[in-house]
Amino acid sequence: MKYSVCIGRALSIAALIFFTWTNYSYAQSYYNKRTATPGARDNAPSQAATDHAAQVANFCPEHWETQECLAAVSESTLVMAANYGANLDKRGKKAAIEDLKEHCAAATAASQGDFPAEAMRSAFVECANEIVDISDETGIEPDKSHYQILVGAVLCLDGDRRCGYVEDGLQRY
User: Fold this and answer.
1) Is the pTM of this model over 0.70?
2) Which of 25, 58, 68, 132 lies at a C-alpha separation of 20 to 30 Å from 51?
3) pLDDT for the residue numbered 111
4) What SS3 state is found at 68?
5) Angle at 96 between CA 134 and CA 109, to 5 degrees
6) What pLDDT score does 62 carry?
């Protein structure tokens, strides 16, 4: 029950973030250029998330169960988890790093080989749930713009009606 509640909450939050990300990023970029405020890009998507969103946009819309798409999402998850782990390490959260490794390792497998879409969906859900748990326990959040790629993939692999919004958001890449 704990995981279904966590993934439900994570999916709802991440879906909302994902849907507003495109419009917010454009507006923030425009505002930053007009005002040249130092540090104004702090809320913008990270370069790593932007790069991986472009890969996912290239392979995934309408083809979420293909090996190319699963590999793109898996690679994105690998980089996100590594960056999150480094952030946790800087703050002395060693136990959380071990939990992250344990629960996200399978979600990175498609970057190294071919796996069934259902197995990868399950691995993505487990990783997303664990990230929510770690974030709740430590108060340290992952790169939200990168995390939403993972959650968007789960929505689409589940055939969720919100997948169309995810795919629409990816079109800018």
Assistant:
1) yes
2) 132
3) 85
4) helix
5) 85
6) 95
Pairwise CA distance, residues 135 & 141, whole Å: 5
* Alpha-carbon gap, residue 155 to 30, rounded angstroms: 30
Q: How far apart are CA 103 and CA 123, in angstroms?
A: 8
| Residue type for position 110 | A
Domain extents in the chain: 2-25+49-170
- Alpha-carbon separation of residue 107 from 5, 53, 100, 157 (angstroms): 20, 17, 11, 13
Classify 109 in phi/psi space as left (phi over 0), alpha (psi -120 to 50) or beta: alpha
> Tokens in use for 147?
């995390």
pLDDT on residue 118: 95
Q: What is the 3-state secondary structure (H, E, C) of 40-61?
A: HHHHCCCHHHHHHHHHHHHHCC
Taking alpha carbons only, the member of 13, 110, 153 closest to residue 167 is 153
Q: Residue 128 and residue 151: Cα distance in Å, rounded?
A: 7
What separation in angstroms does the CA of 44 have from each of 40, 50, 57, 108, 112? 8, 10, 18, 25, 30
What's the mean pLDDT in 94-121?
93
